[in-house]
Structure formats: structure tokens, C-alpha cells
Amino acid sequence: MHPELILRPQQMKQADGLTVASGIPGIELMRRAGRAVAEAAAKMLMKEAHVVIAAGPGQNGGDGFVVAALLAGQGYRISLGLLGRVEQLSGDAVLAARDWKGPVVPIDSLAFDEADLIVDALFGTGLARDLEGVARIAVERMNASGKPILAVDLSSGIDGDTGQVRGVAVKANRTITFAARKPCHLLMPGRAYCGDVEIADIGIARETLEATSGRLFANTPSLWLDKLPRPELSSHKYDRGHTLVLSGGATRTGAARLAARAALRTGSGLVTVASPPEALGVNAAHLTAIMLRGCDGPEGLHHILQDERLNSLVLGPALGVHSGTRAMVAVAAHARRSLVLDADALTSFEGLATEVHQAFRHAPTVLTPHDGEFMRLFKGHPDIIDPESKIERAHRAAAYTGAVLVLKGPDTVIAAPDGRAAINANGTPYLGTAGSGDTLCGIIAGLMAQGLPAFEAACAGVWIHGEAGASFGPGLIAEDLAELIPGVLRKLLT
Ligand SMILES: NC(=O)C1=CN([C@@H]2O[C@H](COP(=O)(O)OP(=O)(O)OC[C@H]3O[C@@H](n4cnc5c(N)ncnc54)[C@H](O)[C@@H]3O)[C@@H](O)[C@H]2O)[C@@H](O)CC1
Ligand SMILES: Nc1ncnc2c1ncn2[C@@H]1O[C@H](COP(=O)(O)OP(=O)(O)O)[C@@H](O)[C@H]1O
Ligand SMILES: [K+]
Predict the structure, then answer these.
(1) Where on this chain does AMP bind (predicted)?
(2) What is the ipTM of this complex?
């Protein structure tokens, strides 16, 4: 299985162009695109149903004309409204419009609430500004109709690159996109606006997509499954790594134990919680398979790390926001072990991002901020926090720090300093529960302990975490997550 490539709108345009240059005319691509949409529409419809098609001024509108002609040929009743005038069409849309022999009405005279199905062919990847005036009203009327909506390529009003709403956007039930998904199909809120997304093959070769894509992927197992650790017959626990998780003080120990248990469940051969002296008692009372060591501040950590077998560290959950935590991070980075930094380890650097500039380029390091932690860490760095694209923000932060960035949320983006990135979409809102992020740290560290490189460990960790949460659903608490990991791994590995 190849990893699923995600193409940004500009790259898709380039892939279209290369395909045309290779001998497939643009109108042929458009006919194939329209046919895929018409087939999907037909499956949603009863005989002689009424289909209302909203066509835009560009090539997305051209697809709409193809759909109209094909569905009319199959006996469906078609109303087609155009934003703009037929004489203003350009490119392949001119040819597509000629295939449609029925009337073309102004878009504001379409009766969306009389439709059995609305086909949204207003805008696709060429959306260039916020929707206003007639276009905006048309989208608002489509949404208000309550009728099922099938979007062509993407929901009109959604920015293909960022997934953001440009003024207003169509709430589609389904989307048929072409050749590859675009970032907006995975990033929020675009993912919610596009509904169920299906990729239609219109004859653009995999090599063409590879040549134009910028190493952006959907985070699915095909991206990392071949690298997932599988213990060999002869292997013992010392071959499977040793994860060290730093605990907070006596009243803040749960986060470390959640991470530690997740690392153990993910297959780290050994896991140790390193605890401040005053919290040893409470940690001891709650740990069984996981080992425990006293660790007094940065010097304590430095001392423990003399043991070379400790090859993967988690620092941050409930560690406290202060200079001591910054000093621990410095010790850990200097020790050049695999490292996951989260929560307080990130927030302790609020406004001090220059201290982590290129700090992590020497060893596999993963930073796992949610949006709030990200904004705090990179405060004063508009070049990193201002881009509208979440992918761009993660890319820039990864390049700045030398670490793999896991920018969390319903659309977690994982970006490596070398330019690779993946968008995750398998989670569930039930993962938004106290301690869920601590568990994620443990999964990623546990995978790195077993030798997975940082980017693959981060991607696999985010996916496994998402899958575990989704398999449980309502009532999920962080304690459940570690216990759900074996079920997810079993499906992946057998
Ligand atoms: N041969 C081709 O060119 C193919 C094109 N395809 C379709 O073409 C689409 C991309 O076509 P385009 O690049 O023409 O882009 P779009 O059709 O998405 O939109 C561009 C048009 O909308 C106008 N526009 C942009 N933002 C606007 C706004 N806010 N309000 C009003 N007007 C606005 C632009 O001036 C331009 O006329 C894809 O999404 C896909 O559906 C597919 O059929 C595959 C083949
Ligand atoms: N709506 C959602 N859909 C999918 N995943 C989510 C959603 N909300 C939160 N998550 C995930 O849950 C985890 C929460 O982590 P975090 O915010 O650090 O919580 P905590 O600090 O309480 O552990 C992250 O992995 C995040 O991606
Ligand atoms: K559309």
C-alpha cells in the first residue's frame, strides 16, 4: 500500500497540467470528473428525481455542466443555475457548457428547496476570496433548504489549502474529489463541511501526483505500518527499549503514570517513572509493572541518564511551569535520547522560543502542543504562529526547533524538520478529556523506545491514540486509553 498523498490546490493544478501535457485533453479530465459525480448522484436518487445544480464561473462550474448533461440523459429532471453568464466562461468549462442542451438560469432564481439533491459546483480549488453578494446568498439558500448536498471537489466557500471558511460555505453531505484529497478534506472546519469524501480516479498517474506533491500525507497506517516494531522470536525486554517518564510533585503524579502505562502497553520493554523524592510514596502506591526511581531536579535527571539503556524520555506532563523544568529539558536534550516534550515542558518556554531554536536537531525529539501551548511557546514569532494554514504553522515550528511537531486538535498535524507532514483524521471528540494528551506522549515515547524514528513514531502514535479513543466512544476517560492500545496494535500487526 502506498501512503495517501495529499495535494495542495497549486500542486493539483500542476498535476492537471502535466496530465494534459502528457496527452489527455483537459475536457476529457473534466468529463471523467463530471461522470464520477453523476454516478455518485445517481446512487443517491430515485428515478426521475429533481436535481438542482449550482454552477460557478470557473472549471468547478464546468464539472457541473457535465453532471447536468449526464443526469439529464438518464432521465432526471435538472435545473441548472450559473453564477455569471455563459459567455463569460473560459477554458474547458466552455466546452462542457456546450454539452448541456437545457436552460441555464441565473443562480438566484434556483429553487433549492424543490430539489431532491443539490449539486454544489460553485467553487473548487480556485476559490480566491471571501464569498459575497450573489454567491454568498446562493450558499446560504442551499444550506437553509435542508436538502441533501453533493459537493464537486470540495464544499464551495472552503479554502482548499487551509480548510477555513471564506465568509460562508456549503454544508455538504458528500464530496467527490478528484485524484487525491486536498488539505481541506482533512483539516477542520473543512472536513466537517465536506461530509463524506470519496476520491474519484480521473486518470492522473500516481507518478504525476508524486512529482507534484510536497510530501504531505494523510496519516493512515500505510505511512508507517512497515516500520511498526514487531518483537522477534528471540527478542527480550532489553531489546524493546526503556522509557523514562518524569513525574510532577506529590499532588501532580497522575499524568506521568498515564504516560508510563501507555508506553508499556505500546511495547516499551521497560518503563520507569522518575519521581521527585517527596512524591515517591504516592507513585510507589500506584505502580506495579512500571519501575520507580527518585529524581531530584535537573542534577538528578543528569545522574539517572548516565544509564545509557534509558533510550526514550517523556518530559512535561504536570512537571510545573518554571525554570527548573527548562533546566530539565536542557539536560534531556543534551543527553541525546529520544524525547517527547509536552505540556509544562513547552509552557515553561513561554515567550522564550529562542532558547529552543535548533535545540532538538541532534536527537529524535517530538513536541506535542495543543493550539494554546503552541501560541505560548512561539509568542513573539509571527512567522510561525500567523500563517492561516495549520500545516504551514507546524512546518515552520519544526524547522525552527529541529523537532517533529505534533500540533494537536481534531485535525492533528504532524510535521518533520525535513519537510514531511501528515494530517490525522481518525480521532473522536471523546479524546478531549483530562489526561488524554499524557497518554499520547507515552505512546509516542514507547514507539521511539523500540526504535521507530521520530516522525513515524509521532504519526503512528497519533493514529493509535485516535483509534483507541474512537473504539471506546462515550464515557472515555484517560485511564481507558492505555487499555485500548493492545486491541489497536493487534489489528495492525496481525
Ligand atoms: N481540466 C480542468 O481544468 C479540470 C478542472 N477540474 C475542476 O476545476 C476546479 C478548479 O477550477 P478553477 O481553477 O477554474 O477554480 P474554481 O472553479 O474553483 O473557481 C475559480 C473561478 O471562481 C472565481 N472566484 C474565485 N473566488 C470567488 C469568489 N469568492 N466569489 C466569486 N467568484 C470567485 C474566479 O474568478 C474563477 O472564475 C477544480 O476544483 C475541479 O472541480 C476538474 O474537472 C478536473 C479537470
Ligand atoms: N474533537 C477532537 N477530535 C479528535 N481528537 C481530539 C479532539 N479534541 C481533542 N482531541 C485529542 O485529544 C488529545 C488532548 O490532548 P491535550 O489537549 O493535551 O489534553 P490533556 O492535556 O488534558 O491531556 C489530543 O491528542 C487531541 O488531538
Ligand atoms: K464545489
Answers:
(1) 408-412, 437
(2) 0.95
